[in-house]
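ARCHIVE CARD
SHELF: 3
SLOT: left
DATA:
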Amino acid sequence: MEHLGEYGFVVRLRVPYETAVERVATALKAEGFGVLTEIDVRATLRQKLDVPFRKYAILGACNPPLAYRALQADLDVGLLLPCNVTPRAAGDRGRGTSTIATGDRRAGSSLRAVSHEHRSRTPMTDHAHTLTRRHRLRQIEGRSAGRA
């Protein structure tokens, strides 16, 4: 797993894009998250701008009990929901490999202030950070190594 500078964390998998998307959805479900939205970025850019783009999705994931608790603490937490996860093809040179990235809610100058101010009151933020950084992305990465 690598840090993505200001934005979040990434895992590289030796599996095709479609398999990566399935694994992410399965891992999220195992942790009580559901995928509320799925944006096909490639199709959207093709339709709106008529430009080519790699296979890339934005999955909006939510854990309802955690989201409810966070929203009870601070309604502005809704600005950070759902938690986005972005599976994407690695590109032409990386055929058969994919990248999974997820945001670090404590990253970025404006988000740092929000997270610091509400840290003890936003269980969704802390749980999503822990989920993506340590537990599930490592599990997804480990599965790909065994099957590649």
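SLOT: right
DATA:
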Amino acid sequence: MKELHSISRSNRRQFLWTTGAAAMAAALPTFIPASALGRDGTVSPGNRIAVGVIGCGPQGLGDMGNFLSQKDCQVVAVCDVKNDQLERARATVNAHYQNQDCRIYHDFRELVARRDIDACLIATPDHWHVLAALAAVNANKDVYLEKPLAISLEEGQVLRAALQRQKRVFQFGTQQRSARGFRVACELARNGCLGLLRHINVWAPGSPPGGSRAVTPVPSGWDYDRWLGPAPFEPYTQDRCSADGLKKTWWFISDYTLGFIAGWGIHPMDIALWGAGDLMDGTVTVEGRGNFRPAEGVCDTATIWEADYQFASGLTLPPDCQPRHCFRRHGRLGRSQPEWCSTSTRIPHGPQSRRLQGQAHPQFKSGAQLPRLREEPRRDCQCH
């Protein structure tokens, strides 16, 4: 009986000590890292924009790097049909966040189905742009979409309607609008600093012909059928889907793209549109010509082109491929080499605005002092 009493007393002491220690621990303050609350210049995890990346080739990885540098974003998933690109993207994300949390997908539909993802970066081949973007938008994701927007007007209109219906945030990959030089050039044009704008020259690199027709095995770890997707089936040919910009041929095959008239031409055309302002409002007539050389290989988009835009305001705009590429290597389709080409061959691509006399293009010396810019080109800048 004495032994039982001793055990009971010992148990009571242990109980009191344990509960007392627990009470003291509860009374002490709990230390939470400031980063978890967003108080050290970071954004708390619950307030970050969760991003999924669809398309992890060179362009996708480059864009993803910009998202990784944003403190209010966190890349949580990546998707690609090529295992090597997919693993490289996952390793990049995990190394940046110093964890192993990034999920991988081969089918973008599985990625956009995740309810915890807020936005998608889409940098697939062009023929997948609208389909991937529509899936993301219809899953209530905001979208950053690489250029070109689509491979037809109809595709672009369907995507625009979906964005308006779902009320999603959308950004297009025309990053030149974020460059100070282009912004200032547009301000000069829209504020009359160039005089009455009559003509805008636009040019971009031409699309090369050729491309091997040699049928080769699909590289290991590539899902070629999923890469083709909505495009008609064609046997895999050498470098058809290569990520190497010096080798890839899909950039210039009409099943997947419009060629550099869209893939690169969107940049100078966009700046021309921005700088012209309401001079491009109203009706427009368009006439175009192109040279196609499909007999030389799998590449069948226009190697050179000319177009003439006539706007109701009287403004004219003739998009061309790069002057040096067109005039000196392939010749012209109809009109003779214009005078402005001789003054612009050092500039690989871009817009050039002209009035009755004089001209301007958005090239500024490094270190030049430029005015503070607003979200849209200013209409009240002083012309000097």
